[in-house]
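Async update (no meeting this week)

Hi team, since we skipped the sync, here's where things stand on the single-chain job. The sequence we agreed to prioritize is pasted below, unchanged from the tracker. I ran it this morning and attached the output directly underneath so nobody has to dig for it. Comments welcome in thread, and please keep replies under the output.
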Amino acid sequence: MLKRLLGSLALLTVILACALGVALVGYYELHKPINLPQAKTSLVWQVNKGSSLTQVNRQLHQREILSHPKLLSLYGRISGKTAIQAGHYQIEPGETALQLLEKFNRGSVISYQITFPEGWNYQQWIAQLATVEQFAEISQLSQIQIMSAANINKVHPEGWLFPDTYSYTHEDTGVDIIARAHRKMLQVLDQAWQGRAQGLPYANAYDALIMASIVEKETGQVSERPTIAGVFVRRLKKSMRLQTDPTVIYGLGDSYRGNITRRHLRTLTPYNTYRINGLPPTPIAMPSAAAIEAALHPKAGTSLYFVARGDGAHYFSDTLEEHQKAVRQYQINQRAVDYQSAPKPEN
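Output:
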């Protein structure tokens, strides 16, 4: 009886020792640095949509990056960490199999960024997206197709995308970026509209968006935006035409070659505010939050005219006579000296 008990204990001891040995080996394998083809170079690894942890581990093993794929898969099942998000992952030198599993489980995919400056129009947005290889196909889609896919339930997309820097992953599409920018513009515009000043000559928030786009294109100086918005608001209230060049340029489309001529100003288009009353039918660019704020909180004053001074800022006038003098001074006399339409860059 005693001999049988001692034999059982010996067998149990051997089993426990083996289990402990396997556990120690497993612990070592999971915590040792994984193998990279080049020890000092990180590796970008793509996980395809629908891939399981077992499949990915097997692929890593086939590339001689992971030594024991079944061990990592088993640990993932035991620890409840089998979830894996598709995308591109950065595998760094010195990372362990456990760290890689954590990265997969968190979905820590590589994030990229794309920037859309304030004042760009819709066509510029599409061209910018098309420069990114994974978004290139967006240039093949029609405006209607893009608006439908991005859930933009508007007549025209101009003005409805918020200028900003957007992060994206390998799984995103160009339409995803457009949709995100549209949702943000809706949010920014709605919030600003709720806090608007009283007595504005806008029928709705869309009118304010149109005005904001004009203000955005008229000046590169943030501090001037409320003043310029004030001029345009007073002109609307007095039933004066806006007479603003950026709307004319937008209406010319691809035919604009860099200079506005008298013929351009005389040509009747829906966007020629020298010929039409009130606002143009759509925004002419994607306005910033600051431009929207300026359109909804214009600066009080008496000026009805302004002209570019040539240093990026503007000269404001109350009367047509004063304005004409300013035009002669800044647009004619100074243009040949040191004229520029945008502010000088800060050092």
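Quick observations from my side:
The chain has three domains: 32-110, 111-226+282-299, 306-347.
The chain is about 45% helix and 5% strand.
Reply here if anything looks off.
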